[in-house]
Amino acid sequence: MALMFPRLARNFIKNGYFPTDEPTLERVLCALAPGDGPMCILDPCAGEGVAIAEAAHALGRGEVKAFAVEYDAERARHARPLVDRCIHGDLMDTLISRQSFGLLWLNPPYGDLSKDANGNIGYQGQGRARLEKLFYQKTLPLLQYGGVLVFIIPSYVLDAELTGWLTRHFTELRIYRAVETQFKQVVILGRRVRQRDQASNSVKEVRARLLQIGQGDMEAEELPLEWPFPPYTVPASPVEPEHFYRVTMEAEQFADEVGRLQGLWPSLDTHLGAAQQSLRPPARALSHWHLALALAAGAISGVVKSKTGRVLAVKGDTHKEKTLQTEYAEREDGSVSETRILTDKFVPVIRAWDMTPGSPTHGEVLTIR
After folding, report:
1. Residues whose CB is less than 8 angstroms from the CB of residue 184 and which lie 6 or more positions away in sequence, other chains included
2. What domains does the chain contain, in order, with CATH numbers?
3. Is the pTM here over 0.85, yes or no?
4. Which residues in the chain show pLDDT less than 50?
5. Fewer Cβ within 10 Å of end Cβ, the chain: N or C?
6. φ, ψ for residue 90 (rounded to 5)?
């Protein structure tokens, strides 16, 4: 079977990117078969989208919805035309519906996890903290029961912890060496089951074999050119995932929204137009009490010039203070009770900036209570 999407060699092993080599990809696809109905498949580390797109075509493109997540912007741009939906972002920053996919194609980043500024690594486990394990923990809940896993990792990552997870979560586990041996990759295939449905008699044998391969005591067989077993049937997905999006907004998406909405400028007159309009004068002259009240409330502000030539820039405001009143009363037994009463009091405050030339307080802010 010839591949439809030849890989771009310039992106090979770039920024921790270990794409599945073409012979391995072609042989893995021979082990898959389509289910009876529409299928949803996912590659959470899609790269340029070649692997998940090839899987979609091998299963029947008209019946498959292919979903992808890719961290690198350039590779995400290559993947978008090949799949139905693609998120450019970190998988840990996504929200994806659980148990929504019949096929999980997982070729995660390789390497040890590093700590963040707080000393956390985001990994929940007891063994060696690896990126492969973190991505496995994040993506396992996305695969529906009965769904098929294609897990491509370096063989030395298979420690006791990871092999324990695999044998608890999957049945029909098979492991093979990738055709390209540069990165010591193995391909693990299995079908997700509930732990209570596992056949306990075969789990120990599979776990022992995985551990031997991980420790280097045994070498996995190379992926067969022709698949010798019944294929892994990718089950139909009842519905498409309800949630499949990035939690934080992408930079390009944010720029598009700003360009579309133009910020608050189109509604500037709505929010600030009243401040630009000339205020109508009152129906009659305000009394001194009205003037003081309006000034203290902040309704009147600006530059004021008195008949004596004094110039002030005034701004009024009102704040609340509490007054304390203490009352004492003698009880029948002769003791004295103390009652404290707090009363709210609204205090108007007028601040004035003295702009009078030659004034002793020129440039100072005066407070009038």
Report:
1. 154, 155, 156
2. 9-114+122-255 (3.40.50.150), 291-368 (no CATH)
3. no
4. 8-12, 117-119
5. C
6. -80, 135
